[in-house]
Design a protein that fits this description.
Oligomer: heterodimer
Radius of gyration of chain B: 31 Å
Number of helices of chain B: 26
Order of helices and strands of chain A: HEEEEEEEEEEEE
Largest sheet of chain B: 5 strands, parallel
Largest interface: A-B, 46 and 42 residues
Shape of chain B: globular
Radius of gyration of chain A: 13 Å
CATH topology of one domain in chain B: FAD/NAD(P)-binding domain
Number of domains of chain A: 1
Structural class of chain B: alpha/beta
CATH class of one domain in chain B: Alpha Beta
CATH class of chain A: Mainly Beta
Helix content of chain B: 25-40%
Strand order of the largest sheet of chain A: 2-3-4-10
Shape of chain A: globular
Strand content of chain B: 15-25%
Distance between the termini of chain B: 45 Å
CATH superfamily of chain A: Rieske [2Fe-2S] iron-sulphur domain
CATH superfamily of one domain in chain B: FAD/NAD(P)-binding domain
Number of helices of chain A: 1
Chain lengths: ~120, ~850
Amino acid sequence: MNSILEQYKTVPESEVKTWFKAAPVSKFPENGGACVKVNDKQIAVFNFTAEGKWYASQNVCPHKMEMVLSRGMIGEDCGTPKIACPLHKKTFSLETGENLNGEDYSIAIFPVKIEEGFVYIGTH
Amino acid sequence: MKTILVIGNGMVGYKFCEKLMTKTNGVNYKVIVFGEEPRPAYDRVHLSEYFSDQDAERLSMAPRSWYEENNIELITNERVTDIHRASKTITTISDKEYTYDYLVLATGSSAFVPPIPGIEKKGVFVYRTIEDLDATMSYVEEIKKNKSDGKAAILGGGLLGLEAGKAIIDMGLETSVVEFAPRLMPRQLDNDASKVLQRKLEGIGLDVLLSKGTQNIEGGDAITGMRFSEDEVLPVDMLLVSAGIRPRDELAKTCGLDVGTRGGIVVSNDMRTSDENVFAIGECALLNHMIYGLVAPGYDMAGVAVDQILGGDSLMPTSIDMSTKLKLSGIDVASFGDALNEAKESESIVYENKFQGIYKKINVSKDGKKLLGGILVGDASDYNMLHQIFLNGMKIPENPEDLILGARGGESASFGSALDLPDSAVVCSCEAVTKGAICCKVNDEGMTTLKEVAGATKATTGCGGCKPMVTDLINESLKAQGVTVKETICEHFDYSRQELYDIVKLKGIKTYAKLLSTHGKGKLGCETCKPVAASLFASIYADTGNDHNVIQDSNDKFLANIQRNGTYSVVPRVAGGEITPEQLIVLGQIGKKYDLYTKITGGARIDFFGAELHELPLIWKDLIDAGFESGHAYGKSLRTVKSCVGSTWCRYGMDESVSFAIEIENRYKGLRSPHKIKGGVSGCIRECAEARGKDFGIIAVEGGWNLYIGGNGGATPRHAELLAEKITNEEVIRYVDRFLMYYIKTAGPLVRTAAWLDKIEGGIEHVKDVVINDSLGLCDQLDKDMAGLVNAYKCEWKEAIENINEQNNRFAHFVNSEESDDTIEFVALRDQKMPKLWA
């Protein structure tokens, strides 16, 4: 069970080696999320249209290890952009990956950039 | 820099570290903690939860990274073997030596195993650590493999034993609790309270044997039974011992510290042992000739030890509160103060209700002025207030029985307000937070929410039992400041759901973005207010789950119920439960085609499980082609109208319940509401459709239908109440229309009709006045609103399939690949399949 989580480590923008070309911007719902297959990994990408921002995280929710975060609901908690898991509404900061309900587990997050209408995800 | 060695990494040992870090921020002291178990400290109070989820992480007090961040060296799997007080050093089992300035013994306790002949046999376990639970669970599995009627026993009917008993039943063994004393929880309950609890436990299948002394454990290698007397043997395949604790004082003994004759490291009220540089805290410490086997006094001891080491003068109080409140498989049990009247200083007042399984007893001082203790079984909702009255020696009502019976007649409430407590009253005993500290955050620092106050004071973050009282204190303090307290949706909307309903309707707002920008805060909203808005748009404009897709709740977003492994279930509507053989055949073929797990739901329809996201539109295309419609099993909407077969077939039937149920289900299908709605129609008072357990229930009687509203099954069952008697089909529909519409307009988010009816001022009489007598002049509007929604119905799955956008298909797992999710795995279950369990 931990072997899945070990595949997902936060990538700070300064450490990006490759920008993975995911899909055109139009494929992502406004103010929602979608899942991108990055080689053998699943990355959830969130389009915060209202703020003009993008975030990405692991798609697996560390609470019950299901590949579902992209199907969750985005929002904010006192100014922090967050994602709520569709299974049990566990919420995570999309800036730091931190669990906002006070549990121990957190999620890995990845940088996103938009170039010429395409979404790119930063990887090692 | 001084060195503190902490021996023992249990709850109290951890709390010592936490309190030390809060006070010193980690400077000036080097801290090394030794734990004998492999993992860092975990919550033993909630150990029985491990039986159901095997989630050790969830029980953890703090992850290893916490110790690292605070520069605490945590050495687990390492037992300390010797203390050398002269040289102020210790040695461990791997022969390593460490020097200390202060030594803290938090060695806790071990399970007491009574010296019964044969107790060493295979199949006998103790109940203390996660490893014990793992061993117990794998043995249960072994028993179940070998026989279908395996039996287990728990030795000890204390609170831990009863929790363990419930857990073993849930694992599938017949279980008996064997207690030596003539009653359960002998330290907390009296005989009558024990009897009430016993009946409730027997109701959930736990066998209770009292006054049983075990003479011998029968069997060869492995246990086969427990012998109580020459001719009484209880056959069992395993035994879990939970017969009390023994303090772990062996290290203290060998280094010459004072220990009690029956065990325990002797400490004075500054938590120092007979050596002033050595402290003992928690269940290993013998204070006032007592071992305190509860976590709250252990935490207090940790606080005193920290303060003493830092040069303070904190002491343990002279009397230590041993009150407890817990839920045993959903049954409230609480005991406080001198519950058993051991001091013989009080007179008792007892209330017992055998129908509901409720027992309440309070012990009042002989002058009738003070509350000295009490016991509550079956309903402990008054515990927090009674406990505070006891702790603070507060004045009690002239008629002390009001404390458990409520004030009968007259205006005054028996308790008054939570604000009547003295400022020094400890409201959260886990974190020792006083009423004064909580009110100060509200009155002086301007906090207004439970979340803020909990963040600032840590109140409610332990066992959570004080949450209702802390909420009351915050709300009452705000009220006293003249602030109106209302139930707002979330941080983004300062409105109740009812107010938002009116805003949306009157101003004609049609999108979430518009609602947020005109009446909310921020740009993003959250998972609480978005689904509320979606539900309002549905209830006002008949918008479906396909509209406003990104603000729909998990299930409405994909028009299906998300299940444990991220797959979905699919439920077509089968109005009234009437289904033709042809329809059954089609459903069977579809289930087979997509390899779905199939079962009949509680609402008498057919549920398919294990559909992957991308399969949903394919399955629904087939269903719709065969004439089925969405069953809205995923929505906060009308689910089913259950029916019995009625006068068309039944020889007792008074009216055609199936026909009426179908008509009603088809009328309200697609109707979205604050929470799900279920209905039932029975053809006679035998009530085979269980209609009185539904949000609306219709029962045929001589001369028409009786209509009941506000029923519920679930966690808080409630029978529906009579709204109107002997009415016609048309009247039933008129009143249900108005009742549902009134509920949809006025209820809070996720409030079922039962809770709504309980809360609404005036109760059922008020609702009668509104929907029958039109006391508010609303009926025309309610009728019109409902007619609009009924006429606007469309099958949202049909709509979803017609409008599917291959470019932006929300049912695709990936946006950049046609593949499906390869992490989903199923295993066989009987003749079908189920999601694979995580290892």
